[in-house]
Amino acid sequence: MTDFAALLQLDQRQPARDLHLVAARGYDAWRATLGGRQRAQLSAARFAAKPGEVAILPGDGDDDWSVAVGGDDLADPWALASAAAKLPGGTYRIADAGAAGLGWCIAQHRFDRYRKADDEQPPRVLLSGNPVAVRDTVRMAEATALVRDLVDTPANDLDPAALAEAIVAQGRLFGATVNVIKGEGLRDGFPAVHAVGRAAAATPRLIELTWGDPAHPRLTIVGKGVTFDSGGLDIKGASGMALMKKDMGGAAHALALARLVMQADLPVRLRLIVPAVENAIAGNAFRPGDVIATRKGLTVEIGNTDAEGRLILADALTLAQEDDPDWLIDFATLTGAARVALGPELPAMFSNDEGLAAALLAGGTATRDPLWRMPLWPGYRDMLKSPLADLGNAPEGGFAGAITAALFLERFIDDGRRWAHFDTFAWTPVSKPGRPKGGEALGLRAAWAAVQGIYLCY
């Protein structure tokens, strides 16, 4: 992984070039304070302080220059992302990078497992005077890169076994305990995970990481780990299958959040639970019309094998509550309906607890990682009825698809349990500064801000 600690450092008066963030609304006044050569350079570069613009300001000597970057606010994580990509290698100084340090760091990250970049660039180092912000920003850059790299890895190299190994590797860094149940060992205790994953060449797994003092408040995080989704016997078309390596994006978010918790040594008893499967097609694949068991004891009639994520989450959420957690959060790339409603950048968030929902929404606002709360609308619960089983996994008609998926999960949540569900896309479809096309952490910063706020109160 990229050494982000080398890219964002504490300012101890090392030699560096000054970097100025200039807002368009104050540009004329700022420009008037400069010398003639600098004003001429800005005019030649047609610099107008628009977000993402970068201009070199000459100094007195041949190698004496500083940088102007267009942008309104260092609270915007992406305010310096363009500069980090455009400037020559070297060391730059800003008084306090704020949240914009994330974009500076992550803009220089590359997923290079399969090929090296054609234009390898020397690092751009940013010096900032806020030691806590530097530390926290580096940690968030590491967590964001973890999500991106896992989601970008194709299914031939990230099957359920490899996903389990990635979780074991992260747990080892912080002294966590990781337990993995796989294959036929899932049949009795996790029948829905077994049913969904049994047709794949890579056997399904239930991965559980535990960390922290058992006496501390309990936080449990669950992530959907479908490493590839063919749709099963209700097979997807080619266009629908093209991005299905990313269907483990929920697991990537859950692991990244768990990493942040452990790295910060938060006073919690942490559990991370990931059901990891490939939804494949073979003679033993589960079928439309089947009725499958779940760990909770509820039976589910299969209306569509492409609605498999909610099935494996049902078993995982049941396990998650068996040690009575104070807070339960799950992440999943669960429905196309959420993307139709909210687009790729805005995760749908559902919660049965007003305090938890408020903390998550406030975290999204504070970190500019927005969420949109969707309703657990009780009037739609009847859509999940089945004539054969306790509930069906795929209501007919296609109405309110994200809501009915969340309501399905809610059936596996105990009364009184404080729970939130993220239906996130985990992907950037069009490149932007600091956000290349590919895997993306959406909702991670919001969740981390909320978790810190809740548990640092203890």
The total beta strand count reads 20
Task: Report the sheet-strand fraction.
Answer: 15-25%
Largest sheet: 9 strands, mixed
Straight-line N-to-C gap: 33 Å
CATH class of the largest domain: Alpha Beta
Gyration radius, to the nearest Å? 24 Å
Full CATH superfamily name of the largest domain: Zn peptidases
What is the count of distinct domains?
A: 2
Q: What fold name goes in the CATH topology slot of the largest domain?
A: Aminopeptidase
Query: Which structural class fits the helix and strand makeup?
Result: alpha/beta
Helicity, in percent? 25-40%
Question: Mean pLDDT, rounded to whole units?
Answer: 96
Number of helices, where a helix is a run of at least 4 consecutive DSSP H or I residues: 15
- General shape: elongated
Outline the low-pLDDT stretches.
none
Proper CATH architecture of the largest domain: 3-Layer(aba) Sandwich
Protein name: Leucyl aminopeptidase family protein
GO molecular function: manganese ion binding; metalloaminopeptidase activity
Keywords: Aminopeptidase, Hydrolase, Manganese, Protease
Organism: Glacieibacterium frigidum
